[in-house]
């Protein structure tokens, strides 16, 4: 896919999981996919368009479906989330099939059946912009971390890996303050962008993924 610098320039310039959502008063919903809403979300195309659409899945709940066939485009939303108040990123997802024969640590293998990521941007000092990528890896075991092949300012974490069950919903929760500190060594107080992407432009393969609601919580 295209370089991370291109994406950063764009965003800076401008199942219990599926069957129900129980939010607290302090939760911040940024991806209200169960209500078939993409309010505030924008698309960035890198190499062909991944098709994003709403479908109805388990127990009548709507989710966001991503279908990629040799393509790479993502959806992103500009938000300002105070990580001192709501540091936890929550989402649910599943995939149709993993991608085959990839070395995801190289530019040629930088494809993922599913990823959810957040960006801390510095519009003036753009070289300091940091991105945490939570990916469904096709080649790595669960939970290893590595630098993105295009830039060390994007860290990849295999929340799900090659041994994870496909066609199965997983519910995820990550403490962003802890992850920024662990992987970048910095105390980040807020993030500016949330995004999802399913891409297969390098591998020339096809896959599908489904995303449930994305929200931030205090605990």
Number of helices: 3
**Portion in helices:** 10-25%
What string, H for helix and E for strand, traces the elements in order? HHEEEEEEEEEEEHEEE
The total of beta strands comes to 14
Write the CATH homologous superfamily. Answer: Galactose-binding domain-like
Number of domain units? 1
Keywords:
mainly beta, 219 residues, Jelly Rolls, single chain, 11% helix, seven-stranded mixed sheet, 14 strands, seven-stranded antiparallel sheet
Provide an overview of this structure:
- The chain has a single domain (4-20, 30-217), classed as Jelly Rolls, CATH 2.60.120.260.
- The strands form two sheets. Strands 1, 3, 4, 6, 11, 13 and 14 form a seven-stranded antiparallel beta sheet that branches. A seven-stranded mixed beta sheet has the order 2-5-12-7-8-10-9.
- It is built from three helices and 14 strands.
- Residues 8-19 have low confidence and may be disordered.
- It has helices at 4-13, 16-19, 176-184, and strands spanning 28-31, 41-47, 51-56, 62-69, 72-82, 88-95, 112-120, 130-136, 145-147, 154-160, 170-175, 190-199, 206-211, 214-217.
């Amino acid at each position: 896919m295209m370089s991370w610098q291109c994406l950063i320039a764009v965003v800076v310039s401008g199942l219990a999981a599926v069957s129900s959502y129980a939010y607290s008063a302090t939760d911040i919903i940024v991806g209200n996919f169960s209500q078939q809403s993409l309010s505030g979300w924008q698309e960035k195309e890198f190499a062909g368009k991944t098709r994003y659409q709403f479908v109805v899945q388990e127990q009548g709940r709507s989710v966001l479906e991503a279908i990629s066939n040799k393509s790479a485009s993502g959806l992103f939303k500009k938000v300002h989330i105070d990580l001192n108040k709501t540091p936890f990123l929550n989402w649910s997802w599943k995939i149709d099939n993993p991608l085959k024969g990839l070395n995801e640590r190289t530019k040629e293998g930088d494809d993922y059946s599913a990823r959810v990521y957040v960006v801390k941007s510095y519009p003036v000092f753009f070289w300091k912009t940091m991105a945490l990528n939570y990916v469904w890896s096709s080649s790595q075991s669960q939970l290893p971390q590595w630098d993105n092949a295009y830039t060390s300012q994007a860290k990849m974490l295999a929340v799900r890996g090659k041994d994870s069950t496909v066609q199965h919903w997983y519910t995820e929760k990550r403490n962003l303050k802890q992850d920024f500190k662990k992987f970048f060594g910095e105390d980040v107080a807020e993030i500016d962008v949330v995004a999802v992407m399913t891409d297969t432009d390098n591998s020339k393969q096809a896959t599908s993924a489904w995303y449930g609601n994305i929200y931030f919580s205090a605990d």
